[in-house]
Specification:
The chain is α+β, with helices and mostly antiparallel strands and about 160 residues long. It has four helices and five strands.
């Protein structure tokens, strides 16, 4: 077996494949964009300044999920891709997506998977924004995925 399922014995039937945080991993479009119009409606009610909402305003909305502060803090750290303490529309949509995943009963990762990095933040994947970067190889040495640890989730 090769292609997208190389290194997986069960292919798309592996437990958890395409669910939770791994949903959209092999999609061409950013999976969050599917619900982004709904998230944008919420975002613009939070009075963004220069295209960003403050932590205070975002927190009020995120608290509506009734998730524990520890979980919301973890989601914030993953979603604030540029580490500026504010969320732009894509970062806010990502935070809402991660909240949705958690409310569906799935775990939130410690590192943001590459396929969830917002499109406008793809160019920010460089050392001063991420404390660690790992490329995962299959048994033949071919890259199959990568993970990035945001600057505030680890030591710079």
């Amino acid at each position: 077996m090769g292609g997208a399922f190389q290194g997986s014995e069960d292919g798309p039937f592996e437990h958890g494949y395409g669910e939770g945080i791994s949903a959209g991993a092999d999609a061409e479009d950013w999976i969050v964009s599917r619900d982004k119009p709904r998230y944008d409606e919420i975002f613009y009610t939070l009075m963004p300044i220069n295209g960003k909402v403050t932590g205070v305003n975002a927190k009020k909305e995120m608290m509506n999920s009734r998730l524990p502060n520890t979980v919301l803090g973890k989601i914030w750290k993953l979603a604030d891709c540029d580490c500026d303490g504010m969320l732009d529309d894509e970062e806010f949509a990502l935070a809402q997506h991660l909240i949705k995943i958690k409310l569906e009963g799935f775990e939130i990762p410690n590192e943001l998977p590459r396929h969830l990095v917002p499109p406008s933040h793809q160019t920010l994947i460089r050392p001063d924004y991420y404390s660690s970067f790992a490329v995962h190889l299959d048994s033949g040495g071919t890259p199959v995925s990568a993970t990035f640890t945001p600057c505030h989730a680890g030591v710079r």
